[in-house]
Amino acid sequence: MRPEAFVFDAYGTLYDVHSVAARCESCWPGKGAQLSQLWRAKQLEYTWQRSLMQRYVPFSTVTREALAYSCETLKLELSVAQMEGLMGEYTNLALYPEVTRTLQALKTRKAILSNGSPDILLPLVQNSGLKLDAVISVDELKIFKPAPQVYELAVKKLQTKDIGFVSSNCWDALGAKSYGFDVYWINRGNAPIDRLGFKPDRILKGLDEILL
Amino acid sequence: MRPEAFVFDAYGTLYDVHSVAARCESCWPGKGAQLSQLWRAKQLEYTWQRSLMQRYVPFSTVTREALAYSCETLKLELSVAQMEGLMGEYTNLALYPEVTRTLQALKTRKAILSNGSPDILLPLVQNSGLKLDAVISVDELKIFKPAPQVYELAVKKLQTKDIGFVSSNCWDALGAKSYGFDVYWINRGNAPIDRLGFKPDRILKGLDEILL
C-alpha cells in the first residue's frame, strides 16, 4: 500500500552534491575531496550543535560558517569570490538521474522536507524544474533535523499522517522513523546502518526502487 | 578575579583518550588511528542526534553503538572481548600531566560536568584519584551537551552562577559561553575556533594556564 504522500529529503537524496566537491577541487587542486568531506561534516555538526544550543541560524549561514572553518583547518585561503562561487553551487545542484521520472511516476502527493533555508532551497527546486506539492523548510521552526517537530511539520503542512519518508541520510531516516513515519533509506553507497535505536522500513539502492 | 567555582569537561580536557587509540591499534594493527577517529566522531554525532530525537541513552551505550558502527564501516570484526577491553579503557584513562597539580593549586571549588554516564564516569574519577567537590553527569537530564540545561545543571548543583568553565572541545566551550559562563578553551592542538556565534573568553595551551 502506497502512503498518501511521499516526503523527500533534498541534499544527497534528490540532489547530488557532487558538483560542490568538483568546484572545491577546481579551487584547490588536490584538496577538493578532503575539503568537501570536512565541509559537509562540519555543516551537519553545526546544525546539531546550534539546535541543541537553541541558537538557530539559517542553513545558508551554517553552510558558510562550516566552509570558513574547514578552509582554516586545511590552511586554504578562501576569497569572497570563492565563497560565493561555492555557495552558488547549492542553488544549481544536479538531480540524481532517476529522480525526475520516479517522481513523475508516483501518483501520490510529493513534498520536500529539508534543513535548507528558503534562500537557497527555493531557487534550487526552481532551477531543477522539479514539480512538487510542497517545499517545506525547517526554517520556520528554527531547529534542524532530526528534532521530531521537523517531521511533524510535514504532517501539518500536508494534513496527513500517512507519509512515506525518503532520505539518503541514515540519521535523518531514523529520526523520521522515531517520529513515526514509514521510512525508506536510500543507501547508494552501501553504508552501515546508524545505531540510533531504530531501523528503516526499507533500504533501497536508488530512488526508483520506491516504485517497486 | 577567579570565579567561585571551576567546572571541567572530562574526556579530552582532564583525561587523555590516547590510550583508547593505542588499544584500537593493538586490536587492529594499522587501523587504530582511523578507527579511533571515526569512533569519537560517531560517538559525538550520536549524542547530538539522540538529544534532538529525544531518544537519550547513557553515554556508555552511545559509545558502544558508535564502536559497533565504526568497526562495521571499516570492516573490522569486533569480538565481545575486544568491545569490553576497549570500553574498559574508558574507566582507566590517564590524566594529562599538568592536571593534578593544577587542580591542587586552585583554591576555588572544582567540579566535572560530563556527558559521561555514572557507570563509566564515576569509576574513572575514582581510579584517577582526582579530588573534586562534585562530579556532575548529564545523565539525570537525559540530554547531552551543548543543551543549555546541561550547563544550568552545574549552577544548580554548585549553587553559584560565578563559574569558570573549562573544555578542550571547542563546541562544548561555546555551548557554555552561549549559556552564560566564563569560558576557557584548552586548545592543545592549535585547532581553529568553531563558528557557532560565540568566542571563548580565553584560549589556553594547557590546563595549568588557568592559574596565570
Descriptive notes:
2 copies of one chain form a homodimer. With 212 residues, the first copy, chain A, is α/β, with parallel strands linked by helices. The first copy, chain A, has 2 domains: 5-16 and 93-211, HAD superfamily/HAD-like (Rossmann fold); 17-89, Putative phosphatase, domain 2 (DNA polymerase, domain 1). In chain A, 45% of the residues lie in helices and 15% in strands. Chain A is built from 8 helices and 8 strands. Chain A has helices at residues 18-27, 32-53, 59-73, 80-89, 99-105, 118-128, 148-158, 170-179; strands at residues 5-8, 15-16, 94-95, 109-114, 134-137, 163-167, 182-186, 202-204. In chain A, the strands form 2 sheets. In chain A, strands 5-4-1-6-7-8 form a 6-stranded parallel sheet, with helices on both faces. A two-stranded antiparallel sheet of chain A has the order 2-3. In chain A, strand 4 (109-114), helix 6 and strand 5 (134-137) form a beta-alpha-beta unit. In chain A, helix 7 crosses helix 8. The longest helix of chain A is centred in the first third of the chain and has 22 residues, at 32-53. The model of chain A has no long low-confidence stretch (mean pLDDT 96). The A-B interface holds A 41, 44-46, 48-55, 57, 65-66, 68-69, 72-73, 143-148, 171, 174-175, 178, 191-192, 194-197 and B 41, 44-46, 48-55, 57, 65-66, 68-69, 72-73, 143-148, 171, 174-175, 178, 191-192, 194-197.
